Amino acid sequence: MPKPLTEYTAADWSHLRPVLHGIKRWRYARVTDAYVQQPARRGDVAALRTCITGRRLLTTIAFNDPEIVERQLLAVRRFVPGPIHLIADNSQDDALARDIEAICEALGAPYLRLPANPWTRRESASRSHGAALDWIWRQLVQPGRPDAFGFLDHDLIPTAPCDPFEPLARQPVHGDKRWAGPRWFLWAGYCFFRTDFLDRTRVDFSQDWFAGLDTGGGNWEAIYSRMDPEALEERPISRIAIVPQAPVDECYVERRGCWLHEVGFDDRPDLKAEKRAGFLAMVDAAIGPPT
Question: Are 15 and 48 a contacting pair, CB within 8 Å?
Fold first, then answer.
């Protein structure tokens, strides 16, 4: 939904930004609408719809990283038993997608390769991610009717027993809140919903940069604007220095409750390899290395 016209300044109007934003929103929505009607490239969607009915569905959006997907699958299996854990592969690299599929097959995890995403090469990773979430909502959750569902980033890994669905017994949604001025939404990397709470709701996991909202912020008007954010439970989030020679504000991972988050973007790309090694060492200390 567009932000109110009253929030645009005189300078915005002089540059016709409200009109241009409206046109762009319409175009983004039409592209995503076409995308979510496309069939999966790999995997049995019909069988998954049947399998998830009345269950809890945990979906990881994977992207070009077999190594981290394998660690997450092992960790979720050990520490978050119960939900169906689906790997929904949004990778653009065919070889890496094959590797991810092979890992899922070896570990007995359900796998879907999503349709070729229209935003991956054209615009932004965030818009690509939001379209992937919308595909899962329309192709699996709506027709399959799980009791509850949630989304994970692939680099968010549990390190102790936990049940991310448990707060849904007391509230209809659960996750990590992000703010953009007066607006808020649940971070797309860790968000959970009771399915029946979204009945008759126009669900939209897209971003809305014009209102300052990242992936998942498209649900502001339909879901979050009608809720009291202070009534939702929160988990502690902290930064941990991961490379000895780099200060924490330049290279870090996050501890989100009992989960570790590698964090994809920081100010020291030159330390990427060291950061990954340090992150995997922390994960393996909790779950053991893959065999």
Answer: no
From residue 247, how far is each of 209, 244, 276, 280 by CA, in Å?
A: 30, 8, 16, 19
pLDDT by residue (tens digit) across 147-198? 999 999 999 999 999 999 999 999 999 999 999 989 999 999 999 999 999 9
Q: Is residue 164 part of a domain?
A: yes
Contact 155, 64 (CB under 8 A): no
Domain that holds residue 276: 237-287
90 and 152 in one domain? yes
Are 92 and 205 part of one and the same domain? yes
Which pTM was predicted?
0.91
Q: How far is the C-alpha of 179 from the C-alpha of 213, rounded, in Å?
A: 8
Instruction: Say yes or no: 150 and 181 in one domain.
Output: yes
Contact 58, 152 (CB under 8 A): yes
Residue 88 lies in a domain: yes
Amino acid of residue 210: F
CATH number, domain of 182, equals 3.90.550
Phi, psi (5° rounding) for residue 87? -100, 115
Is there a domain that residue 221 lies in? yes
Q: Could you report the average pLDDT of every consecutive run of 10 residues in the chain (291 residues)?
A: 71 72 73 92 97 98 97 97 97 97 98 91 78 97 98 98 97 96 94 97 85 86 94 95 89 96 81 93 89 65
